Amino acid sequence: MGRITGDFAGETVIVTGGASGIGRAVARRFGDAGATVLVADLDPEPNTGGTPTHEAIEEAGGTAAFAETDVTVPADVEAVVEAAREFGGVDVMVNNAGYHAGGPLLDLDVAELRRALAVNVEGVFVGTQVAARDMIDRDEPGSVVNTASISSEVAQFEQVGYDASKGAVKMVTRGSALELAEYGIRVNAVAPGQIATEFVEGWSEEAPAKAASDDLLKPVPLGRAGVPDDLAAAYLYLASEDASYVTGELLFVDGGWQVL
Predict the structure, then answer these.
(1) I need a surface site. Which of 18, 94, 98, 167 has the fewest CB within 10 A?
(2) How far apart are the first and last CA of the chain?
(3) Burial status of residue 140 (CB atoms within 10 A of its CB: 0-12, 13-18, 19 or more)
(4) pTM, full prediction
């Protein structure tokens, strides 16, 4: 079976939350496809240790840099988009940075909810806004790919805060796609399912067993939890010319979880 590789030579891609997990896999795949990758995160070190993403891309023969970025601070997002100008300007903006606010409705601290909304919603909104302004200013059409979730459309038990934030990501994606179409800027989102990362503490160890059982209220039809590499090609597709007639879309990559 073939593998999507893509050709992003000469293009510049920003990946927020690119130091670890899904963002790391996406950044590395864009690097393999020839893009210059700016890894925008709070810390260059992966959560699980190892070589920082930008260094791993360079060791593989690609071009990358790290930009310390807090997506809840608009000036930080503006700075990384400005940094992309050194490489010709941002062509693809991947708004991936996220925060998990789990817990029952009756117990969830409103501060946790606000943090989730700040990272997951404001971070995506500002990232889309700043990148789009830059693309329009340079008169260069581009692509924005956001990280949504199965929680964007399907409620999950004791996940009301996270569900609320990811539901908003869906509408930021679709509303932005509607407004930016006239500039040739496409805005889409990948909606991951149960993915084994360190995003939720302990999840990476528990995920395979949970995904194959009823511990998640329903099993994953493909019989396993996903891993970050399962998602990376979806981002490349949505950012590529092959998806030139796709905008405002949520692409579910969940092993069939949401159709069960």
Answers:
(1) 167
(2) 26
(3) middle
(4) 0.92
